[in-house]
Design goal:
about 325 residues; Farnesyl Diphosphate Synthase; about 0% strand; globular; two-stranded antiparallel sheet
Amino acid sequence: MTVDVLSKLIEVELKSVQWKRQPANLYEPIAYILSLGGKRMRPLLVLLGYSLFKNDPEKILKPALAVEVFHNFTLIHDDIMDKAPIRRGQPTVHEKWNETIAILSGDTMMVKAYELLVQVEPKYLARAIDLFNTCATEVCEGQQLDMNFEGQAEVHVDEYLEMIRLKTAVLLGFSLELGALLAGASEEQQQQLYALGIDLGMSFQLMDDHLDTFGDDTFGKQIGGDIRSNKKTFLLISALEHAKESNARALKQWIHTTGNDEEKVKEVTRIFLAEKIDELSRNKIQHFADQAMTILNELPGDASVKKILMGYIHQLNQRVA
């Protein structure tokens, strides 16, 4: 199967999921955020992890969707915490409705994610729930670390990388691992796919950081949003660690500047470029992408599916080209 075929299976199955109609302001936000699209990367990785070992991925569409519903639940709550106005080029749920509705709609999605996840073969159920619980807890830990960083005067690159491993990468690792588990792959193979997902997730999140500053209108989020909010990303942390004295001083001044967002974005971006932080960012992205490719090359499984995964990793990595 191709990525396009798998993606269509996911979309058809997602549209078949039934949401209650009342109260409307609880369920409409759920339909709204799921209708905004996105890459559907996580359910796709579940199906690809499964397809390495078996050729009937339509059998596990519901647990694959569990990962997508859970992911969108985290987006609703993250957007509230980040006070983000835009998600996938459209107003965020809390902007379109309000924070109370967004919180409750997100909570409902978490319950629905469990309803979908438990629709696996009984012999895999306990392990699937255990892996999901571990992953979901780590995602929350990552989000809390992200929030903690806002009040910390100093954050180091290694601390930031651990935060995004938890907040973003573990869910991609779980997605591939879940697919392998449901296909009956060995524990070693499941762990290899989990490690592949971690590297892919690290690369992906670092690209998001990069595109927040160096992207264009196709990114689907407000360009320069991280700079405006002084978010401690790989770019900002690296710039603070490596910038020459004059640029470091100017950068710290801009961090404490409010009310001049457009000029702030322009000048901080200029400092990033002057200090070659954009190149440092690309190199770090490539580092994790290369590690993912190395693991994939060593994996057993269907050669055609491995080729699809290789192409997918390459495609994601080219977002910063």
